[in-house]
Specification:
The protein is mostly helical and 56 residues long. 66% of the residues lie in helices and 0% in strands. It is built from two helices and no strands. The longest helix has 30 residues, at 26-55.
Length: 56
Amino acid sequence: MKGLFDLSPVFGYFFRKNDPNRTTNFNLRTMHFINKLSMAMFLVGFIVLLYRWFIR
C-alpha cells in the first residue's frame, strides 16, 4: 500500500538530467515532450477533480 501513491518516478521523469551517452533525435525529444505534457495535464485535471470533490 505504501508504494501505491509513490509519485517519485513521475517527478523524476520531469526533472532528470540529460544523459550524455544517450543519442537523441527530434522524434525522441518530441515523444518525451508529449509524454510530459500529457502527464502534466492529467495531474492538473486530477487536482481539479479532487478540489471539486472535497471543496464543493
